[in-house]
Specification:
- By secondary structure, the protein is an alpha/beta fold.
- The chain has two domains: 29-304, Rossmann fold (3-Layer(aba) Sandwich), CATH 3.40.50.11740; 316-359, no CATH class.
- It is 40% helix and 17% strand.
- It is built from 17 helices and eleven strands.
- It has helices at residues 4-21, 35-44, 46-49, 63-66, 69-79, 102-107, 118-127, 144-156, 171-180, 193-199, 206-211, 222-238, 257-266, 296-299, 316-320, 344-347, 352-359; strands at 28-32, 54-58, 84-88, 111-114, 132-139, 162-169, 188-191, 215-217, 243-245, 267-274, 278-287.
- It has a six-stranded mixed beta sheet with strand order 4-3-5-6-11-10, sandwiched between helices. It has a five-stranded parallel beta sheet with strand order 2-1-7-8-9.
- Helix 8 links the parallel strand 5 (132-139) and strand 6 (162-169).
- The chain starts with a helix and ends in an 8-residue tail after the last helix.
- Bound molecules: iron/sulfur cluster.
Amino acid sequence: MKTNSEKELSARLLDEIRKSTAGREKPMRLMEVCGTHTVSIFRAGLRQLLPPEVELVSGPGCPVCVTPDGYMDEAIAYAGMEDVIVATFGDMLKVPGSASSLAEAAAQGGDVRIVYSPLDALTIAKENPDKKVVFLAVGFETTAPTAAAAVLTAERENVGNFFLLSAQKLVPPAIRALLADEDARIDGFILPGHVAVVTGSDAFSFLPAEYHLPGVVAGFSPTELLRGIYRLVRQVAAGEARIENEYKSVVRPEGNPAAQEMTARVYETCTAEWRGLGVIPDSGLDLREKYRRFDFGAVRPLSLPPVPPKKNGCRCGEVLQGKILPKECKLFGTACVPEHAAGPCMVSAEGVCAAWHKYGGGVFQYD
Ligand code: SF4
């Protein structure tokens, strides 16, 4: 519940944002690259409250959404194997692969189990020694240390039937890839609070240094977000570029060294494919040689047909690059709704299409 003082602060921040942007010829475009920010912004109705001179666009901040079809095809193929249990976060169940989904694989008899952490998957492995348990490790810097901890625990406890199928990704290389696109018109970034807890705010210092773009690490409440947007607006309006941290209660410039050490111990960076952004060097996390026996893709390689081009008209790729809004996809709200989604951005709870669908016409709500 928002207190009166928070309401007053929000009103003051909105007023300052209006003053800082009044009379601009072109709106400033600010991108958030965190699925939780996307949902928080919609939930609070911030888009409707901001002046027309400030446009918020969503970027590739939802890990489920950026996972490509090829990875889903592999997971679905493994789920169809007699001796395999696929353990996954619930969001992944309905994500369409080339021709099917994990939910369909489960309906056809595949053993697909929803878990809430990689350690749950490890427990399933211990309980089912005659099966190979494959955890779908999908996420960013925030969740990679937890999956790494599960691998280290499996090693320590000699659990030989626990594996990852890693599609873990790193946010800074994706931002660089976005900015390499000539059509990208982004004036500043609302930087991901959760990712920055691990990486530190310094991990984004390349934005001002190399692109003369500002970034603000923001928290998640409406007031925290507004404060972050206000700080960003002021920098853009003044032509300044630096990284500011408006989430100091949990984000430090250097991040969380213990989590970084855990990640570096278990993984090495690799080239990774992102839905919408394509193949980006050094943007993924693969298990190091020492832990390769926990990589199910290496232990049981598949030879699947190439992923065919999508024919259903889903434009998630463009949505994830901030090039179009969900409502510009002709399937939005008709052939694509959360109950029968045509693309991952409508499936995931953090997907921008799902947020538009749920809150798009949104009215400001204090939570
Ligand atoms: S509305 Fe549906 S089909 Fe269109 S881009 Fe979003 S997820 Fe894809």
